[in-house]
Amino acid sequence: MAQYVGALDQGTTSTRFMIFDHSGQVVAIDQKEHEQIYPRPGWVEHDPIEIWDRCVDVTRGALKKAGIAASDLAAVGITNQRETAVVWDRKTGKPIHNAIVWQDTRTDQIVNEFARDGGQDRLRDKVGLPLATYFSGPKVKWMLENVDGARAKAEAGDLLFGNIDTWCIWNLTGGPSGGVHVTDVSNASRTMLMNLQTLDWDDEILRLMGIPRSMLPQIKASSEVYGKATGDLAGIPVAGDLGDQQAALFGQTCFSAGEAKNTYGTGCFMLLNTGTKVVPSKSGLLTTLGYKIGNQPAVYALEGSIAITGALVQWLRDNIGLIKTAPEIEQLAATVENNGGVYFVPAFSGLFAPYWKNEARGVIAGLTRYVTKGHIARATLEATAWQTREVLDAMNSDSGVDLTALKVDGGMVYNELLMQFQSDVLGVPVIRPKVAETTALGAAYAAGLAVGFWNAVEDLRANWAKDKEWQPKMDAAEREKEYRFWKKAVTRTFDWVEVETREPVPA
Length: 507
Hints:
The chain is an alpha+beta fold. The chain is 33% helix and 22% strand. The protein has helices at 48-66, 108-115, 124-127, 136-146, 150-155, 164-172, 185-188, 203-209, 244-251, 310-320, 328-333, 373-399, 416-426, 438-450, 457-463, 476-491; strands at 4-10, 14-20, 26-33, 45-46, 73-80, 85-89, 99-100, 159-163, 182-184, 194-195, 200-201, 218-220, 223-228, 237-243, 260-264, 268-275, 286-291, 299-306, 343-345, 363-365, 406-409, 430-433, 466-470.
């Protein structure tokens, strides 16, 4: 009998394959980065072929490290960067363009044109999302309008679209030779094309965006068998699919309404389980699908999405050269006692929740001759915590329930200085689980549930264990004073970019 479950975790900067045992412990992991492509300011792309090659590489690597065969896996689940859009030829399997990444802002004019009739919330009642460059639908429209011959091929039924989960599952199950073209409700809810109530593509929105329905994957539950893998995982059921943030919610076992988690990665994403009810946001949050297990009712969530958190540390390392490795940020920040009056608002791709301002751009405020690189490093870390505070305030307002503790996961949760500051500015305990890589764990859980490796969500709750907890230490008056300065700095980012006419793709 198979003793393990695998998870393919395709993220914004890297891909990894993780293998878990029945107790939810990590057995093996293999990980590889892929290239970040920046053709113009505000444009961010990935090569889908490179991503799939990385998927193959890390799957082999993890199996080798674990010393097991593919047949020892009961199932494999997929989790992914969500709003990154891929369009490819169904016959050849070749993408028509690089994947357009969720951080990319090239669709700002498309979004602005849609918003002229009905405003930014024109589609929110149906899809739970504001009109923003973040989501996949406008990216598909851009490709159909700007890639030579794409519109004709799409109308002829020759093109397929998907977020990265769909691209991976299609290739994993055979690609041009019988690959399954599916997505799950959590990923579909990030396209701006799926109706939250019907859990199906919305024909009115498809007409508005000019996207043929034939391009779109079939929407499935997050936990069910979609097909059998080919290649290195030949014969293994592909049985779980969750967007990365919903996967983290699942992996943190936030199965009850009112439970929340925050994932610290390239961006930062807080999700609150709202149960089987769609809860509209009046405070700038997203209403999204949490997950759907088999034939059970769908579970919804409120989400606060922050574009740049861990990516800001990478920027200091790669673009500015202030540090040589990401972990050095904590040591450098610890050389000073406070931020020296500096606030760093990383609106590199505009502001996401709770503002949704596409025209915002990054600002460092409060600079004086006193400021050192230590203060810049500290302000960099504090930016993540302050942005999270803004999202939590919105979440408390929308849900009517004050959060009493926050479960955290992702790469930045091992930064002790950041986690203490996060607890300080929220005024609640911050709790890190023993298995902090809950995104991959959530995908594994979804896949394992579908094939009976785990029987029920109660089995998954029993696996969750606390590793460390931080308690708030900051004086409340100090916290609110600092927060006022942060919010003042945020206002300085507004409306930096002036509206321009859309340009064609460079040859």
